[in-house]
Each structure stands twice: as structure tokens, then as C-alpha cells.
Design a protein that fits this description.
Layout (H helix, E strand, L loop, with lengths): L2 H8 L3 H9 L6 H11 L11 H18 L13 H16 L3 H21 L2 H24 L3 H15 L5 H18 L2 H14 L6 H20 L3 H15 L5 E3 L2 E3 L1 H15 L29 H4 L16
Antiparallel strand pairs: 1-2
Helix pairs in contact: 1-2, 1-3, 3-13, 4-6, 4-8, 5-6, 5-7, 6-7, 7-8, 7-9, 8-9, 9-10, 9-11, 10-11, 11-12, 11-13, 12-13
């Protein structure tokens, strides 16, 4: 497949494909899914990080694993003030949105330890706050584990995020944990179970009474549509995309509780699902509902793809060996 053919099949511009190959553009997860679907390969085969970043990340995977091994055991460590800890956790979340995986990897082990310590040594409302910090930290660490192929560690981190979310007494955090949990089902190709889990989470998700709850419900519907598309359940795809469009049109594009949502995100998911199911399922024009342009890749979890090993190749002739994973 040529670059032009790939652009047509993935519903992106030829300039975008060329920019990604040069490393000038970082595609969003949904764009990456669309390109992978057009090539009929797993997104894992498209992600090519720098050797230096790969080595830095893989070097700290054992430390991340050790930090969560005894997550439920009280230690004698002294807990940091929550305001101070919250600043560091917030920075970690910003790095995740900007795909700064090496930075996350360097800080995640000690921040996991410190947020666990804060959770165990606080009570009352401070404990609820510490649980939210722990859930946020765990999500950032999971982004590294999942992207770089440590799927067993990723599954453990997702379960820890769910454990922490259940202790926040915050339904938005719990909905976010359910959204992230879908990674486990993607990795296992357990799409039917993944859809069932998301629909159960939607049953528990709060009503859309404000931007945060509206985005939480909409993001779960977007994710459910993608999962349903993975195994060709067109009825559930249509249902969940319709349910995602309404909240998507009622909030501004942005990061809500660390998850990108809004009209452009919904449209990008529609394109990703359409590529998976086939051209006949693309029902609306490939433009942004807010700007009239094709959605641009958002920085959330972006990665450099194709890399130097793809240069001079014709697409579809096998994937390069990679060290990272989506």
C-alpha cells in the first residue's frame, strides 16, 4: 500500500501520513488505531520510540512493579503533605497527556510509594484525597507500562487504579478507572467482556449534570463503540456512538479527569471505528464538528510512529521490529 493509499484507507490526509513518518506529527490514539486498522495490523507494530527512551523506560519497570507489590500493607514511612504531593502528581498527569514517558518512568516508582503511604497514613477527607492522587499516579504509570509492552504490569496497575478509585467515593474517578481498564481487554482481545464491563460502568456513571459527569459518560460511550467495532458488533457501535455524540456536542474539547473528550474526540473515534468496520460505516463527513476541519491529533498519549525503519517501505509489507507497545 502506498502512502496515498494508506491516507485514503485511514481517512487522514496524505500530508498527515508524511508528517507522521518524518516524526513531525504525533498522532492521537484514535488516529493510530485508524492507521493500524487500515493496514490490518495491531497498533503495537507502528510505535517506534527512540532507543534511549526505550532503555530508560524498561530500566525502571522492575521498580514500578516493586512499588505496588505491597500496596495494601501499612509502612512506617512518613507521608508527605498532600498539597506538595498533589503538585508532583499533577505534573505526572501532564507528562502523560504530553506523552513524556521517560519522565513519567523516572518519577513513577517513588510517587507510587508516596501516594500509597499518604493513603494509608491519612483518614477522613484527606484519605479520600490521597486515594484520588493514588488513582491518578497509577494511571500515569500504567500509560508507560502499556505503551512499552509490559502488559502484565499494566494489568496490575489498572487493578490498583480501580482499587484506589473505589476508595475515593467519587463516581467520576471510578468511571475513569473503568475507561482505563479497557486496555486490559484490548491486550487480551477479550472484546465482548470489555464491552460488557464498559456498559456496567455506564450503569453506575452519574447523570450528565455538569461538564465532568457529561465527559465521563461520553468517554465511556466512545470507548464502548471502539470495543464493539473490534468484533464487528455494528448495532452496539451505532448505539454508543449516538450516545457519545450528544455529550460530545455539549462540552468543549479538553481533558476531563485526564481523559480527552469533546466533539473532535467523538469524531476521531467515529473515524477509527469506521476504518475497523469498513468504508460503508462512515456516515458523516470527515470534518471537525467545531471547526469544519479534519480533527487534528491531540497530544494525549501521542507517540512517534513509523520511524526510520519505515522509510522507503510500501505500507502493508510487514511491520518493523519494535520495543514499545500500545
Amino acid at each position: 500500500m502506498t502512502q496515498a493509499g494508506l491516507a485514503r484507507a485511514a481517512y487522514v490526509s496524505l500530508a498527515t501520513i508524511k508528517g507522521i513518518e518524518r516524526g513531525a506529527h504525533s498522532p492521537s490514539d484514535h488516529m493510530l488505531d485508524s492507521i493500524a486498522a487500515a493496514l490490518a495490523i495491531d497498533p503495537i507494530h507502528l510505535i517506534v520510540g527512540s532507543t534511549r527512551t526505550d532503555s530508560r523506560v524498561h530500566a525502571v519497570v522492575p521498580a514500578i512493579s516493586a512499588a505496588i507489590a505491597a500496596y495494601d500493607i501499612l509502612t512506617d514511612d512518613t507521608a508527605r503533605p498532600l498539597d506538595e504531593l498533589g503538585e508532583d502528581v499533577g505534573q505526572l498527569a501532564q507528562w502523560r497527556l504530553a506523552a513524556q514517558y521517560a519522565r513519567i518512568a523516572e518519577q513513577a516508582p517513588h510517587l507510587l510509594t508516596e501516594t500509597l503511604t499518604a493513603f494509608h497514613h491519612n483518614t477522613g477527607t484527606n484519605r479520600l484525597r490521597a486515594a484520588r492522587l493514588l488513582a491518578t499516579t497509577t494511571r500515569s504509570a500504567d500509560a508507560v507500562a502499556f505503551k512499552f509492552g509490559a502488559h502484565n504490569l499494566s494489568a496490575r496497575l489498572v487493578e490498583l487504579m480501580r482499587w484506589a478509585a473505589d476508595r475515593t467515593e467519587d463516581p467520576i474517578t471510578q468511571a475513569t478507572a473503568a475507561y482505563v481498564r479497557t486496555e486490559v481487554f484490548f491486550a487480551a482481545r477479550a472484546h465482548t467482556a470489555g464491552l460488557r464491563a464498559l456498559e456496567q460502568a455506564l450503569d453506575s456513571c452519574p447523570s450528565p449534570v455538569g461538564p465532568a459527569s457529561t465527559a465521563a459518560r461520553g468517554a465511556l460511550h466512545m470507548r464502548a463503540a471502539v470495543v464493539a467495532g473490534r468484533y464487528g458488533n455494528t448495532d452496539r457501535v451505532a448505539l454508543h456512538l449516538a450516545q457519545a455524540r450528544r455529550p460530545g456536542d455539549s462540552v468543549r474539547e479538553g481533558a476531563y479527569d485526564g481523559t480527552q473528550f469533546g466533539p473532535d474526540s467523538v469524531r476521531a473515534h467515529e473515524v477509527s471505528v469506521a476504518v475497523s468496520l469498513g468504508r460503508d460505516h462512515l456516515q458523516r463527513p470527515s470534518t471537525s464538528p467545531t471547526s469544519g476541519r479534519r480533527p487534528t491529533p491531540c497530544p494525549r498519549n501521542g507517540s512517534q510512529v513509523f520511524g526510520s525503519s519505515w522509510r522507503g517501505r510500501r505500507y502493508g509489507q510487514g511491520a518493523p521490529t519494535t520495543h514499545s507497545s500500545h
